Amino acid sequence: MKEVLFVCLGNICRSPSAEAVFNSLIEKYGLAGELQCDSAGTAAYHAGEPADYRMRQFGKKRGYNLTSISRPFNALTDFYRFDFIIGMDRQNVRDLKASAHKESDLRKIYLMTDFCVKSKYDSVPDPYYGGAAGFELVLDILEDACEGLLQHIHQD
Question: Active site residue: 13, 14, 37, 146, which one?
């Protein structure tokens, strides 16, 4: 069983969306026995809260169910449990690397957009303070990157 953790700042927009998109791929391809995923935030601002209502609405339009509850990244347990720890932007990746305890932890950290196949983006932008187009863009990027991540995992 391979386990993937998606990480953004507050764990209410981007990382729960990545979790929902990836879970839909797991279901679509019948990989529930092989893959699991979760999401977390580098900050605990929204711990215990559901995903942002706007993100849930935009996800639902595309058939995604964002059900996760926000939690902070826990370096003590998450580096041990997860095989892939995917940051949504470069700051998330820097924060994750700063919390790593050993070299093997660092090798688990990736940038989400590095898995994009159809498009080129430097990061998954935070849509929190923007409008509808930002939420749609997040889902566009995540759909592409999650497919690429799935391909990458199957190449391992």
Answer: 14
42-91, pLDDT tens digit by residue? 998 899 999 999 999 999 999 999 999 999 999 999 999 999 999 999 99
Query: Is pTM, for the whole model, over 0.70?
Result: yes
Task: Give the architecture (CATH level 2) of 2-155.
Answer: 3-Layer(aba) Sandwich (3.40)
Domain boundaries, the chain: 2-155
Task: Write down the catalytic residue from 52, 89, 95, 126.
Answer: 126
Cα 77-79-80 angle, rounded to 5 deg: 65
Is 14 annotated in the active site? yes
Whether 156 sits among the annotated catalytic residues: the reply is: no
User: What are the phi and psi torsion angles at 72 (to 5°)?
Assistant: -80, 150
